[in-house]
Amino acid sequence: MRKGTKKGMKTGAFVFLCIVVFIVTFVTSIVIKISYKSPEMQQYSVQWSDEIGTVRTDLTYGEKPANEFDLYLPVDDSKESYGLVVYLHAGGFTSGDKTDDKEILQWLCSKGYVAAGINYTLRDDAHPEASVLSQSNEIKESIPFVIEEARKLGYNIDRMATAGGSAGGCLALIYAYRDASSSPVPVMMAFEGVGPTSFYPEDWKCYGFDQNAEAAAEMFSVMTGKEVTAEMFGTAEYDELVKDASALLWVNEDTVPTVMAYGQHDKFQPYEGSVRLDKALTENGVPHEYIVLPHSGHGLQNDNRLYAEYMAKVEEYLNKYMSE
């Protein structure tokens, strides 16, 4: 067997292991979040009933099986206009469902917003071609359908925010930063937790990509849906290649206000990338809140006070930027 072939096999095995870690870490984080809710977080959930709103499920926005969304509609349908909050589900781009976020979607609806959970085609055995890029494009395609469906049901949308966790946070930022200029209604803000925002090997120390450029190139090719080679790293060509899948590379002085939370011990996605994003937002004068949880990993599970602070800032920004 040739030396190059052996090297390729080793790199492929390493990337496969990274993907497995992606999924396992996500599932662990979700189990932690579901099994325990701190007293500080009780105020961010509601006892759902017809007195709060109604939900329309499995509405379609495209021809692919995953192209469905749920719409949460506040009981008060008398306003001339409403704000829409889209919350995108987590799952390492390979799993998860819009129903995973029903609690926060119900809470958002209780605050008077039309809230939408949107599914997108996951990267799995049936869809090996799916990537951050293709998923972000599906989200972009879905928004006009979500807004039109709300209008048909008597809720005129004139502003919106995007949000999510992990993979959903990544996709929410891409829409808010990359696609805001073509959105059917103005994007006013974004909020997210632990979403990967960039693809620089030196940031992805959690997978050893800072020491293995070939493995980084292979993994980033999978994630971005583009052919990445190790030789591209550090070049303007590389930034242009991955830009459509990297929220960081769209930051400018017109970027929408953002609230974000990251765990300093995250082993699932690079904490260092969030430092880079915070710096870019600061340098461009973008109003934002960057909340670091110093004792937490991807699940943000060990800093209850700071996680509650994140949610308080979310509500503060919603009140400020999504008001009528």
Automatic annotation (TrEMBL):
InterPro entries: AB_hydrolase_fold (IPR029058), BD-FAE-like_dom (IPR049492), GDXG_lipolytic_enzyme (IPR050300). Gene3D superfamilies: alpha/beta hydrolase (3.40.50.1820). Pfam families: BD-FAE (PF20434). GO terms for molecular function: hydrolase activity. Signal peptide: none annotated. Residues 70-281 form the BD-FAE-like domain. The chain crosses the membrane at residues 12-32. Keywords: Hydrolase, Membrane, Transmembrane, Transmembrane helix. PANTHER family: AB HYDROLASE SUPERFAMILY PROTEIN C4A8.06C. This is Acetyl esterase/lipase.
